[in-house]
Structures are given as structure tokens and as C-alpha cells.
Specification:
- By secondary structure, the protein is an alpha/beta fold.
- 45% of the residues lie in helices and 22% in strands.
- The strands form six sheets. It has an eight-stranded mixed beta barrel, surrounded by five helices. The chain has a six-stranded mixed β-sheet with strand order 2-3-1-4-5-6, with helices on both faces. A five-stranded antiparallel β-sheet has the order 8-7-11-10-9, sandwiched between helices.
- Helix 4 links the parallel strand 4 and strand 5.
- Helix 3 (66-73) packs parallel to helix 4 (93-104), helix 6 (144-181) packs antiparallel against helix 7 (186-202) and helix 15 packs across helix 16 (538-548).
- The radius of gyration is 45 Å and the shape is elongated.
- The termini are far apart.
């Protein structure tokens, strides 16, 4: 080399004045020499021996062909500069490698200096224009000084590009970290996240990281206790221990200083980050560094620490929200969501002999209504406390909602007998004794593969079965119950479709005077025939319609259609007294029911006194005051009222004298008794009661001449049944009337 060494040394000294990067002495710049000439490799490395650029030494990587370069670069990273020969095994091998580096490896920051001893194979202008290279030199012009100049410029450019990219990645990591911390579970999870995110942000392993917290609750004499709340690597054994037990005085003092002085500390081979929001909780993280940080690294970490402070402020709020999401605030028990989560875990872990029990306090709504919600709350707390005391921590107890508790545990600890015994002793509420009856629904989790929510539904089915059939006892869910419920759900879906597709229709059963056989009216009866021609019984689909709310629109359609049919019969000259239409309790509860009746009458042109609404005895039991008002409203417009299925309920007869009723209807079951040993006693009693109250009496289910004669002789005025006529379609009414005698 013709240039003297002193000139080159002066050139290097100019770069050692960089204050920001002057302390980075641990890292090197990777320089790849790609050339098929061994002498070029030796000369290049010799000329750059012991040279530092931007205060880092050079690390050389040697390859001698295109194929070898492919193989070596595939496992390398962070190569700052490639000194690349144009011509090796082929005249375009070097240019092919340029494409490989840029297009396949996606090394955009790496600087490529093209060197050639035969410029003709790749003219400089064409190579600069067509290929992403940064410099082009012939080998004979690359003296030591010029090589050093070109290499320094290339490394400086590479470092600037990497700094910009690091800044971009760091900002992205900060945003990602903030989102991640919002999901952390408690302060320990937050601290663990700090370790993970700082390691990712700085590009360092998590071996030398730990977090400590200042616990101000343990302040004594203006001194604080600092404890390790997250650790990794060789500090893992320090978890939950005071930092005074850390053997390394550098770490111990750095954490104590950062927490007490509330500052972040940056040293050459470590840093201690401090972050705290507006709250009192503060955390410091000590991180070992394999290299000193650049200025931009420190700036990014300051932004990161600020974001962590905001997240730390929100941590208490997140914990509180989670508490509200998974805990019942009245009884401070796990709630329905938490119970389902526990069920999911039990099913996933296939825990043996697990039993789910739902406990419902019988008549709790009435307790609230009569004794007040405060009393009800006290009773719920007393029940919860007794269950916790009796069952202990081995059983998972939750409040599912209202007065329903969920229990999950070993089936031997949750037998119905043991649970009933817990409720034998009365509860003392406000110095008064209160005995509690409870109903239960049970599900054995063995072989269950469904979700926890599905299991809870099955338990609710069993509980509902208990409440409906034998309150105060228990029901174990069976697969048959599930099949029944699914069939009911399927039937409900088909019912909605049938209504939309007009597969529901009305049939009409005549009502006659028993004394002279004169037709006095018809009862409109709803029927459903499926697409396959199967008739579905009203006893099956009417309860479904009531349960789903379809009865509102369905009932309105029945009422309107029946009114139109009656209006047409009257218009044709038939002498009839009424059209009877059954009304559900759900319809009666609608605030606009009377208006709906008025519209049906107005639109059909039917006078109100021709319409009779049949209500069941059970309807009148749902609050006499409300029904008195509704019935009085209907009577005021002229509509007739009949009580259907009279005698099948258990209500007091005293309400009968208060309600504006026109007619009592003897239930078919009492008519059938005429043929039995019991005889017509109940039917006769209802007939006499009607006469005493000034009400007409009609019997349904008349199927034999005996029924007809007995009812007529006892004074029952009207009747209907198969003996007289089966229900018929509207187009069959006129032919039947013409033939009736």
C-alpha cells in the first residue's frame, strides 16, 4: 500500500469524537469479503487490522464463491458492509449476489461495495443504474486510505439506517406493549410483562431482568420495604423476597436508589428503569445489558416508562372491572360468568366425580314482596354464609342470579340429603326465625364434553323440572330431558315457521241450547297441521306459543279471523248469539289488549255483544284487581266473558262474585265423570253455583246421549262436544247448519 500509516490513523481519530456512540466498545461491525482470490482476502484484512470505525472493531466474514456466499449468508445477520467481487466462478456471479442480498434476504440496510479487477464485465454506469449497490471501485484504485474512507462512509450510512429502523420498531413495540399491559392480570402479571417487553424492546435476553415494588403499606419510620415481584433467569429464586436479600450490591443499591429517588438510572452495562403513575404504587426494573445503550435507545425507554406509568394507573381500574365482571357484589361470591369458567376448567381437566348443583330458594319472590328487599338480601347472605361454612373450600360456590346458587364439587360431598340437611335449621333474620325450603337441579359432569354454559343450561332444566313438579326436592338431569327440551325447541322453531307460512288455521265447534237443540254459537279453535300432514295438539303448541311470545301475534290473528267469520255468518242471515274465542293470560297482560279487541271488531264490522272471550280460571288467579279492571273495560264495550275449565283451579270462589262474568264453562273432565262411579256431582255443583250467581252454564266434551240427557236434566243450559259436532273448517259451517236438526 503506497499510503503511509500516520495519515490513516489521523483519519480514524476524527470519528472517535462522537459523544453519543463513544462508549459502545463491546460490539463489532461485520464486514463480508466475497472474492475468489485468496490474496485479496489476506490483503484486505491485513490493511484493516486493528482499525476501529465509530469506535467498534471490525469482524471479517470470508466467502470465495457465489454458492458459498449463499450458504453462509443464510445463517448470518447484521452484516454492515459487503466487499463484493463482480467476477468469480461466472462473469455475473457478483451481480447475481446483489439480487440475492436485496431480493431474497431482504437486507435493505447492508451496504454493498462492488470491487472488480475487470471493469468491462460490469460497466460502472450500468451497474450503478441497474443494481442496488452503494459504491463501485476497481481493485487497483482501492488503496488502504481509500478503502478505509469508503468503508467508513458505508458503515456510517448503515448505522444511520439501523438507528432509524430501530426507532420505528421501538415505537411500534411501545404501542404493542401498552396494549399488552392493559390485559395483564394483577400487579404480578404486569411486572412479568415488564420483563418480557423490555427484553423485546432492547433486544436483550431476559436472563438478567427483575422487577421490584415499593410496598408503602409496610412503611416504618419513613423507611420502605422493597420486594421482588417478578424475576427471570438466574434471578428467578428471588421471587417475592425483599431486595435486601439480593447478594449483588450493584443490583440491590440500584433498585433501592431508583425506587427511593424515583428516577431511572443508565450505566454502561446495566440500567434501572423507574415507572409510576399518579398512584402510590411504583415499580423499578433492573436490566443487565451486553452493551451500552445509544441515545435513541434511552429516549425510547423514557417513552416506554411513561406508557407503563399510564398502564400502572389503569391497573387498579382493570382489576376493579374484572372484579365486577366475575364477582357478585352483594354476596361477594363468584358470579355466573366465573362459575361457567370454573365448569369449563373442570370439564377440560376431566376432574372425576364432579357434580353441579343449582339451589333455588322456594318462594323467594314472595319473601321480597312481603318482607322487602332488605330482608331478602339478608336472607341471601345468611344462606351463602351457611353454605360456605358447611361445604368449605372443596366446593366452588357461586351466585348464579337472583336466589339461585351454583355448587361444583365432588358428588359425595354434594348429595341431596347432605344439602337438604344444611337447610333444616331455620335462619335468624332480624331476630326472627325463618325456615327455608329449597329446590335443586343436579348434573353429573362425568363424560361431559360440552361447554360449561351448556352444562349450566342442563342444570337449569333439571331445576325447572323440580320447581314445576315437586318443589323442595331435587331432580338429576338425564339425557332424556335434554332430548325433550331439544324437541320442544325444534317444535317452537317449526311453530314460528308454520305461522309465517299460514299452516295454522281455525276450526269451529258449534254450541247449542240443550233444551231445544238450537245453535247459539261457535267456539273458534286453533289447529296446526305440519307440511307432512301431521296434526299437532294445541296442548303441545299453545304453551310453546305463550313461552316464546308468539301468542301475542297469534292470538291477535285468531281474534280477527273469528270476528270476520262470525260477521259473515250473520250477514248471511244465520241467527247466532256469539263467537267464543280463547284468550291467554299473556294476551291479557298486554296494555293494548282492549284496543286490539276494539280494532278486530271495528275492522270486521262485528257488534261487540256477538264476541265472547273465554278466560281460564287460572287467568283470574293472577291478580284479581288487574283482571277486574281489564274485564270491566271489555264489558263496557259490550263483549261477553266466560270462565273456561271452571272447577279445575284452586282459587277461592269469592272472586267470582266480583268479576263481570256472563258464563261458566264446565270442564270436559267433569262431564266424563258422569260415566263413572263419582257421577255428575261436580257438574251439578257448578250448574247450581252458576244459577245462584245469575250466570249461564255451558258444558264441553258432550260425547254420549247420557251426557246430554244428564246435563239437560240438571239444568245446564248449553253444551258442545263430539255428540253434537266435531270442530269444522269455516267452509263446512253452512252445510252443517243446513243439516242440523
Amino acid at each position: 500500500m503506497p499510503e503511509n500509516l500516520e495519515d490513516d490513523e489521523i483519519f480514524i481519530e476524527e470519528d472517535l469524537d462522537n459523544d453519543v456512540l463513544g462508549n459502545i466498545a463491546q460490539r463489532t461491525w461485520k464486514i463480508a469479503i466475497v472474492d475468489d482470490d485468496e490474496d485479496v482476502h489476506r490483503a484486505t484484512e491485513f490493511s484493516l487490522l486493528d482499525v476501529k470505525i465509530l469506535n467498534r472493531r471490525l469482524e471479517f466474514i470470508h466467502t470465495y464463491s457465489k454458492a458459498e456466499t449463499h450458504e453462509r449468508f443464510a445463517v448470518e445477520s447484521d452484516i454492515a458492509v459487503v466487499l463484493l467481487d463482480v467476477v468469480m466462478e461466472t462473469e455475473h456471479a457478483g451481480l447475481d449476489l446483489v439480487c440475492y442480498i436485496r431480493d431474497d434476504l431482504k437486507w435493505r440496510d447492508t451496504r454493498i461495495i462492488l470491487r472488480t479487477g475487470q471493469p468491462g464485465y460490469a460497466p460502472e454506469e450500468d451497474a450503478i443504474r441497474d443494481y442496488d449497490i452503494n459504491d463501485y471501485k476497481t481493485k487497483n484504485e482501492l488503496t488502504r486510505k481509500k478503502l478505509l474512507t469508503a468503508l467508513t462512509a458505508a458503515i456510517r450510512s448503515y448505522d444511520q439506517l439501523r438507528t432509524i429502523e430501530a426507532s420505528r420498531r421501538g415505537l411500534h413495540q411501545i404501542i404493542t406493549s401498552s396494549a399488552a399491559f392493559s390485559m395483564q392480570d394483577g400487579i404480578e402479571g404486569f411486572a412479568s410483562g415488564v420483563i418480557t417487553q423490555i427484553a423485546a424492546l432492547c433486544g436483550v435476553p431476559s436472563e438478567g431482568l427483575l422487577c421490584a415494588q415499593c410496598d408503602e403499606a409496610l412503611q416504618f419510620d419513613n423507611s420502605f420495604r422493597y420486594s421482588v415481584i417478578a424475576s427471570a433467569g438466574h434471578y428467578r429464586n428471588l421471587m417475592n423476597r425483599p431486595i435486601d436479600e439480593i447478594d449483588n450490591p450493584v443490583i440491590r443499591d440500584a433498585l433501592r436508589r431508583a425506587l427511593s429517588e424515583r428516577v431511572s438510572l443508565f450505566e454502561e452495562d446495566n440500567m434501572t428503569l423507574y415507572f409510576s403513575g399518579r398512584g402510590k404504587r411504583a415499580i423499578a426494573a433492573f436490566i443487565e445489558l451486553p452493551y451500552a445503550l445509544t441515545a435513541i435507545d434511552q429516549q425510547l425507554l423514557e417513552i416506554f416508562c411513561f406508557n407503563l406509568g399510564v398502564c400502572l394507573d389503569n391497573l387498579g381500574l382493570v382489576s376493579q372491572l374484572k372484579n365486577y365482571a366475575f364477582r357478585d357484589q352483594l354476596l361477594m361470591l363468584p358470579n355466573r360468568l366465573k362459575f361457567i369458567e370454573q365448569l369449563d376448567a373442570s370439564i377440560e381437566n376431566a376432574t372425576p366425580d364432579q357434580l353441579l348443583v343449582l339451589i333455588d330458594i322456594d318462594d323467594f319472590a314472595e319473601i321480597n314482596d312481603v318482607l322487602g328487599h332488605r330482608y331478602g338480601d339478608l336472607l341471601l347472605r345468611a344462606v351463602a354464609n351457611r353454605l360456605q361454612l358447611a361445604l368449605g373450600s372443596q366446593v366452588f360456590l357461586a351466585r348464579i342470579g337472583g336466589d339461585v346458587f351454583g355448587l361444583l364439587g365432588n358428588r359425595f360431598a354434594l348429595t341431596p340429603e347432605k344439602l337438604q340437611k344444611i337447610f333444616e335449621a331455620p335462619f335468624i333474620i332480624d331476630d326472627s326465625s325463618h325456615t327455608v325450603s329449597m329446590s335443586m337441579g343436579l348434573v353429573a359432569l362425568d363424560s361431559y364434553s360440552q361447554s360449561g354454559a351448556d352444562v349450566l343450561k342442563d342444570a337449569s332444566i333439571a331445576l325447572k323440572r323440580t320447581k314445576g313438579y315437586q318443589r323442595g326436592s331435587h331432580t338429576l338431569f338425564t339425557r332424556e330431558m335434554g332430548v325433550e327440551i331439544r324437541e320442544r325447541a325444534l317444535l317452537m322453531q317449526h311453530l314460528h315457521k308454520a305461522f309465517d307460512a299460514e299452516r295454522l288455521f281455525l276450526m269451529y265447534q258449534p254450541q247449542i241450547s240443550l233444551s231445544d237443540r238450537k245453535v247459539v254459537g261457535f267456539e273458534a279453535l286453533l289447529r296446526w297441521r305440519t307440511d307432512e300432514g301431521q296434526m299437532i295438539s294445541p296442548t303441545d303448541f299453545i304453551p310453546l306459543a305463550e313461552h316464546s311470545g308468539l301468542i301475542i301475534s297469534l292470538g291477535a290473528w285468531v281474534l280477527r279471523t273469528a270476528c270476520y267469520t262470525m260477521a259473515q255468518l250473520l250477514e248471511k242471515g244465520y241467527s247466532l248469539d256469539r263467537m267464543a274465542v280463547n284468550v291467554s293470560v299473556i294476551q291479557f297482560r298486554q296494555p293494548d289488549f282492549i284496543e286490539l279487541v276494539k280494532r278486530a271488531l271495528h275492522d270486521s264490522g262485528l257488534a261487540p255483544h256477538y264476541l265472547e272471550l273465554e278466560i281460564t280460571e287460572s287467568v283470574t288467579m293472577n291478580g284479581t284487581g288487574m283482571f277486574e279492571e281489564a274485564l270491566n273495560g271489555l264489558k263496557s264495550i259490550g263483549v261477553q266473558i266466560a270462565i273456561d275449565d271452571f272447577g279445575t283451579g284452586f282459587s277461592s270462589l269469592s272472586y267470582l262474585d266480583k268479576l263481570p262474568v256472563d258464563r261458566l264453562k264446565i270442564d270436559r273432565a267433569f262431564v266424563m265423570q258422569i260415566d263413572t262411579q263419582a257421577g255428575p256431582r261436580i257438574a251439578e255443583l257448578i250448574t247450581q253455583l252458576g244459577k245462584k250467581l245469575g250466570l249461564s252454564v255451558i258444558a264441553e266434551g258432550i260425547e254420549t246421549d247420557t251426557h246430554f240427557d244428564v246435563l239437560r236434566k240438571m239444568g245446564c243450559e248449553e253444551g258442545q262436544g263430539f255428540l253434537i259436532a266435531r270442530p269444522m273448517l269455516d267452509n263446512a259451517i253452512e252445510p252443517w247448519l243446513a243439516s242440523w236438526k
